[in-house]
Specification:
- The chain has a domain of about 35 residues.
- It is about 60% helix and about 0% strand.
- The chain is globular.
Length: about 70
Amino acid sequence: MNIPSNVYLSEEQLVELFQQHQINWVQYVEHHSEDMKNDYREYCLDNYLDCKSEDAARQYLQHIESLI
């Protein structure tokens, strides 16, 4: 699914799209919120990760979940 880069969706919408295999983890992170998108890019830079990588997106989501 091609979502414009400046469009952010609700978590409910993102979960539904992910469960329907219409988006991947990178798209989930990038379309959650501007803050999450920016935090993710910073996390990738700090950890020498490719921000287009599914593994990096999963690692980032696990990281923020562990902070909660």
